[in-house]
């Protein structure tokens, strides 16, 4: 029962990780730059993401521009696109596979099949967490290095946005869920190896009858 509850808790963490991963991939809040200028009425907030750049004006206007050209983008944005999409796909596969392998469900067949499915789902979550953690770390490093560069003007410097923090938290949820799923299956298999099932040997009825017949002959 405790293992099933732990798997259910890991499944909830994985769901939050999947939703956060998708939100971080689509949101344009990877880089944020606030330019107030001389008048607060003309203040604007520039946001850059993996797929679009948006500008929000203090008057309430909001405009976005899609990034159509892939080759013109920096290498870290291209890598972030690829790895975040892979993270979303792997986490979605992990949800489907883990649902089959969980102990609280009636899917997956026998115990061995459910353990294998549970372990496979955990591996998908771990890989999704790694693919989600790498681009967020790389993107944050580029933002910090550009911010500390003295040759770059102040108007071109940005700070990490909400999508970066969402990516970090989602990757952590996916990694924790994957470790829980894999460890729960491993403990069950290890217990089966240490304590093998006892085999009871019962004498056959034929031997008993033969033994009784021989005693009568000797009498």
3D structure, described in words:
It is found in: Cell junction, Tight junction; Cell membrane. Claudins function as major constituents of the tight junction complexes that regulate the permeability of epithelia. With 219 residues, the chain is of the alpha+beta class. It has a domain at 4-28 and 74-194: Up-down Bundle (Butyryl-CoA Dehydrogenase, subunit A, domain 3). The chain is 63% helix and 11% strand. It has 5 helices and 5 strands. It has a 5-stranded antiparallel beta sheet. The chain is elongated and about 60 Å long. The model is unreliable at 188-195 and 204-213 (pLDDT under 50).
Strand count, sense and closure of the main sheet?
5 strands, antiparallel
First-to-last CA distance: 60 Å
Residue-averaged pLDDT: 80
Radius of gyration: 29 Å
Q: Reading side by side through the largest sheet, how are the strands ordered?
A: 4-3-2-1-5
Order of helices and strands: HEEEEHHEHH
Strand segment tally: 5
- What is the CATH topology assignment of the domain at 4-28 and 74-194? Butyryl-CoA Dehydrogenase, subunit A, domain 3
Strand content: 5-15%
Number of helices: 5
Q: What characteristic shape results from the CA principal axes?
A: elongated
What's the architecture of the domain at 4-28 and 74-194 in CATH terms? Answer: Up-down Bundle
Fraction in helix? 55-70%
Query: Which ranges are low-confidence, i.e. pLDDT below 50, for 5 or more consecutive residues?
Result: 188-195, 204-213
What's the layout of helices and strands?
Blueprint: H1 2-26, E1 31-35, E2 44-48, E3 52-57, E4 62-66, H2 75-101, H3 111-148, E5 159-160, H4 162-194, H5 205-218
Antiparallel strand pairs: 1-2, 1-5, 2-3, 3-4
Helix pairs in contact: 1-2, 1-4, 2-3, 3-4
């Amino acid at each position: 029962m405790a293992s099933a509850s732990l798997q259910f808790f890991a499944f909830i963490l994985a769901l939050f990780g999947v939703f956060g991963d998708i939100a971080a991939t689509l949101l344009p809040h990877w880089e944020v730059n606030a330019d107030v200028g001389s008048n607060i009425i003309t203040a604007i907030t520039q946001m850059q993401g993996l797929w679009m750049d948006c500008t929000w004006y203090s008057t309430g206007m909001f405009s976005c521009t899609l990034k159509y050209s892939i080759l013109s983008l920096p290498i870290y944005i291209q890598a972030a696109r690829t790895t975040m999409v892979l993270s979303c796909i792997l986490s979605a596969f992990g949800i489907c596979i883990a649902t089959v392998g969980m102990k609280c469900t009636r899917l997956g067949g026998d115990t061995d099949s459910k353990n294998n499915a549970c372990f496979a789902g955990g591996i998908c979550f771990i890989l999704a967490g790694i693919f989600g953690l790498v681009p967020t770390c790389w993107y944050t490093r580029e933002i910090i290095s550009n911010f500390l560069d003295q040759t770059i003007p102040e108007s071109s410097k940005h700070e990490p946005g909400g999508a970066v923090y969402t990516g970090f938290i989602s990757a952590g949820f996916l990694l924790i869920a994957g470790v829980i799923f894999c460890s729960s299956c491993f403990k069950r298999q290890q217990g089966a190896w240490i304590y093998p099932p006892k085999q009871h040997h019962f004498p056959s009825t034929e031997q008993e009858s033969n033994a009784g017949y021989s005693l009568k002959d000797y009498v």
